[in-house]
Amino acid sequence: MRHFLLPIIALFICACDSHTTRRDGPSLPPDIGNQRPPAGEDQSYNPELADKVWRLTGLGADMRYDRGGVLFLTDRHPGHITIVDLDGVTRAEFSHSGLRPDSTYAAPELIFRGSPVPLLEARMMAKDHHSLWLRLLTANSTSLTLVIPPQ
């Protein structure tokens, strides 16, 4: 009886192992899953996806939630967020009027240190339960990263 069960157990173990996740593919940042930019898009944004900290980078400022004194204030109505550095100098506001099917935001507006920053595009790059990654493209082709709480 023992000789009969041993081959069956060995087959069961081999069958279970063939259904496991492949480990030889490219590694993705944790919790991003399969959310990647569509084929043909610049893949240089992937390092930004590895950092889940809420932040605004670019424009000569690096406002990060994990550094003391930076607050992210969400509005009651979705589509508006204010980022305040308690240094009393740096403040940013981002707003939009909705997400389009192509992952761009309608009517994006950015105000930084009291001045409007003309935006060509605001695009959602990824979203998980903790963060929403946006790439903002300014009128002078500067790329900004905005990572905010999902709304």
The largest sheet has its strands arranged as 2-1-10-9-8
User: Could you report the average pLDDT, rounded to the nearest whole number?
Assistant: 78
Radius of gyration: 22 Å
- List how many beta strands DSSP finds: 10
Number of helices: 2
Low-confidence stretches: 14-40
Percent range for β-strand residues: 35-45%
Largest sheet: 5 strands, antiparallel
Tell the overall outline.
globular
Termini separation = 61 Å
Broad structural category: mainly beta
Order of secondary-structure elements? HHEEEEEEEEEE
Proportion of helical residues: 10-25%
Outline:
With 151 residues, the protein is mainly beta. The protein has helices spanning 2-17, 46-49, and strands spanning 55-58, 61-64, 70-74, 80-85, 91-95, 109-112, 115-117, 119-127, 132-138, 143-148.
Plain-language structure description:
- The chain has 151 residues and is mainly beta.
- Helices cover 13% and strands 35% of the residues.
- It has two helices and ten strands; from the N terminus they run ααββββββββββ.
- The protein has helices spanning 2-17, 46-49, and strands at residues 55-58, 61-64, 70-74, 80-85, 91-95, 109-112, 115-117, 119-127, 132-138, 143-148.
- The chain has a five-stranded antiparallel beta sheet, with no helix packed on it.
- A hairpin with a 5-residue loop joins strand 4 and strand 5 (91-95).
- The longest helix has 16 residues, at 2-17.
- It is globular, with a radius of gyration of 22 Å.
- The N and C termini lie far apart (61 Å).
